[in-house]
Amino acid sequence: PFDLEGFTADASAQTPIIFILSPGADPFALLLNFASEKGMGERLHIVSLGQGQGDNAKRLIDHGKKTGDWVILQNCHLSKSFMPELEKIIANFGSHTAGPMNPTFRLWLTSMPSSFFPIPILQNSIKLTNENPTGIRANMLRCYNDIKDIDLFDKEVSFPECTKENAYHKLLFGLCLFHSIISERKKFGPLGWNIKYEFGDIDLSFGSQWLFMFLDEQNTVPWDALIYVIGQIVYGGRVTDPWDRRTLLSILSNFFRPEMLQDEYKMSASGIYTVPLLGDLEHYKDFIRTLPIHDHPEIFGMHENANIAFQLQECEILLNTVLSVQPRAAGKSSGDSGPTPEEMVQQKVIEFESTIPAILDIEEESGPNTWRTMPNGLPYSLCTVLNHEIEKFNKLLKAMYQTLAELQKALKGLTVLSEDLDAMFNSFLNNQVPMLWEKKAYPSLKPLGSWYKDLLERVAFTRKWLRKGEPPAFWMSGMFYPHGFMTGTLQAYARQTGTSVDVLGFKFTIMEMPAEEIDKSPEAGVYVYGLFMDSCLWNKEKWVIEDSLPGVPYAQLPVVHFLPEKHHKKPDTYYAAPLYKTTVRKGNLSSLGQSTNFVLAVEVPSDMSEDYWVQKGAALVCALND
């Protein structure tokens, strides 16, 4: 735990103490407790800096210097205009013009790292930071180090299952383990959370308070109320993605269940993580110290391949950092027979210009069966989808034609190399998709070579659709905007049957026939192929999804029949796997409360519980990274 006693002993009235804040770690509660222990609880003055709070801060500092009170200025990074003035105030500490200072006075500052924070204050202060620990064991120890008292119940008071003391101790242990798991889960990237959340000490503090209150006031353990308040409100209040919220509640249900009240209940398949026997605070700390230092994916409910995803993510961060600081070679040195960077880029430009697809021409290339209307005279919705796809691809292709021509001129010295073209030059050298193309393109994480090959295949699929009419099976991964295709499919069925589109959902059927053998469209709905399974695979013999093979995180999903159905409800034996455009899963939050990376939930047969797959992070993706 934080040794605030030692820090204040090293400080003086003239030396401020700065807490450098980090996401998820807020030492404010520790400081309040420390002030109370030192008898300064009533003499602690707090100002949260912001607009108009500068005068209040100066008044309290002047008051504290005379009386010896403590002053906390919170969030200095939010008050840029006040920082020069604060620098002058602290510089005058101890000077004759500032007058005498009470030796018990202390000035505490909290701030996120910021470029405008005064350097002299940093140089002449004591600086503290409280980073979140790494690993479940370290997180658990930190949780229990912050707990002052665990014996809050009379030993005679009991629930039907056990004493209230026993229930509180075991559920508090479960709550701390839950807090540690969801904090550590972000290291697995998209497998852990779609969006990285910084769960902090304040969440655990409120969660433990609610736990005590519910157990103290009820005659039975209110499991549903505990899960709702702690899962949906205390921790769920930070969660913005609905699929992350499903994951959060699924993990919490592992620890807030009647089995947790059993002695040595196993919380993992291997039995390494169990509920400790009743004891005092030191007993639980000693038990936590026996847990593994390195966390196995099983405690997170994840497959062993999750470690591979974690390591790949770390390598990618490292390589991207190296690329970002790599100097550009100046030119060809004597004895160097390799091409210069300019020659390498010019060669790529020539290759792209010679192979880039032609613009999709609706007037010249449309086939006789491409644009059709329905028997009732209404336009066929999938034709509208095709029109939108062509428009999007043409905008991208035109941008590519234009920028390649401009870069070619710049390399020849005919025009100035603008900032955008210079960035495009560097992207070509690093095998990355240029930002000028990325702005016009569909979401993709592929490197430039794979991205361009994928683009050729997408344009070829769209051109075939334009020339020959609707295909018997759709490569949804090759579409610019899969959401529009899904909406068009539902709308086509609604117009065909006279059903309101608002009451329609999709029924999903996995097909035995591969995509290349399908030669006829279904009577209703569409056949879709090209989707990938992340953290699971399809078992053709059992006709269910099962765990991925070791070292193989992705697998191909067979052709799926998307059949619109009125008032569709998910069967109990199916798992609702969210479908994302890319493996990163993260997107911007739309007005409908869903990520823009999310397409829809595809229901696949499973012989395991939904929680099993939710905690594994099992999902579907339209495109891989290579």
Features:
single chain; 626 residues; alpha/beta; 5-stranded parallel sheet; 5-stranded mixed sheet; 20 helices; 12% strand
Q: How would you explain this protein's 3D organization?
A:
- The chain has 626 residues and is of the alpha/beta class.
- It contains 20 helices and 16 strands.
- It has helices at 4-10, 28-37, 54-67, 83-91, 119-123, 136-145, 164-184, 201-217, 223-235, 242-255, 281-289, 305-325, 341-355, 362-365, 381-411, 419-429, 435-438, 448-468, 482-497, 610-616, and strands spanning 17-20, 44-48, 70-74, 106-111, 126-129, 473-475, 504-510, 526-529, 532-534, 537-539, 544-546, 554-556, 560-566, 574-580, 598-605, 619-621.
- The strands form four sheets. It has a five-stranded parallel sheet with strand order 2-3-4-1-5, with helices on both faces. The chain has a five-stranded mixed sheet with strand order 12-9-16-14-15.
- α4 (83-91) links the parallel β3 and β4 (106-111).
- α7 packs antiparallel against α8 and α15 (381-411) packs across α18 (448-468).
- The radius of gyration is 31 Å and the shape is globular.
Strand tally: 16
In percent, how much strand structure appears in the residues? 5-15%
Radius of gyration over C-alpha positions, nearest whole angstrom: 31 Å
Low-confidence stretches: none
Shape: globular
What oligomeric state do the depicted chains represent? single chain
Helix content: 40-55%
The overall pLDDT average reads: 89
First CA to last CA: what distance?
45 Å
Strand order of the largest sheet: 2-3-4-1-5
Number of helices: 20
Kindly name the structural category: alpha/beta
